[in-house]
Amino acid sequence: MRLYETTFIINPQTDDASIDRQVKDVTDLIANRGGEVVHENRMGTRHMAYAIDGLTQGYYATLVFKAPAELLTSLERHFRLGEAYLRNLTIVFEGDLERLKEPREVEERARPAPRTPRAGRPDRPFGRRETTPRVPEKTETADEQETETPAETKPPVADTSRDTKAPVEPEPQRETATDAVAAEETKVTAPEPEVEPAPEPAKPPENYPEDEEL
Amino acid sequence: MAEMRIRRRKICRFCENKIDYVDYKNDRLLRRFVNERGKMIPRRVSGNCAKHQRKLTRAIKRARVMAIMAFASESFR
User: Fold this and answer.
1) Residue A168: what pLDDT?
2) Region A163-182: what's the mean pLDDT?
């Protein structure tokens, strides 16, 4: 018996009862064939990054379960035959079961579909990435710390020396980089190892010269 | 890269934060390693170590399949 994780997408246009039924079908299938569902995470209706079957939104659900290997073929078959399942992905569970139990992730994912395209909001659901550079939001210091993580955005020295096309924008941020990094280091040892805590206003990391494809 | 410059040594942020598992469902994290057009950022730029870059790649590709991230997105040209 191994731990597996399966994620699937259901057509959200069906009513809630049938969505529940579809999810229940899967959980029942697992339970009836000698498996045990350990964790269920219904991520709800989200925007998808691209349209599937003409739909732009989908209802996402994830199950973590223990199962004998034989169950997987039945599970795959169930997904393949079921018309309500747009996509599915079953993998060996690699995460941490204890961390799963925390409600943090579910709360975070309870965001609705995007409101306005160019609101410049710090977090965003699935969907097409905004392509216009957003004004970096400096409302919270946590945001700045997040964007100033060294590995992510422009290395200060290199960027200026090659800076023919890069916008002036990065400059003011760099002054706070050292402060932010120092603060960031203390923040790193804080509860969540995942780089999630603050909403990200991060500019799309396209400013490094190597990636300019203009 | 003929010019000699001192580039600050980047630390792999996964190693730094001791993250071992890169979740393909975590689009917020994954998006940091993808450029405007949806293409993955090379390791020499992102500063990731080889091990985590591999995990990240796997996660991004899974996310793409599950429509959590795009394979390619438009950009204004």
Assistant:
1) 47
2) 46
Q: Which of B23, B68, B73 sits opposite A129 (nearest CB)?
A: B73
Residue count of chain A, please give it: 214
Q: Name the residue with tokens 């409600």.
A: A103
**Nearest-CA distance A1 → chain B (Å):** 21
Strand partners, A87: A9
Interface of B with A in 29-68 (CB under 8 A): 29, 31-33, 35-39, 41-42, 44-48, 62, 64-68
Spatial contact of A111 and A52, defined as CB atoms under 8 Å apart: no
Cβ atoms within 10 Å, residue A147 = 23
Write the ipTM. 0.81
Q: What are the tens digits of pLDDT across the range B8-26?
A: 677 888 888 888 889 999 9
Determine the distance in angstroms separating the CA of B48 from the nearest CA of chain A, rounded to an integer: 7
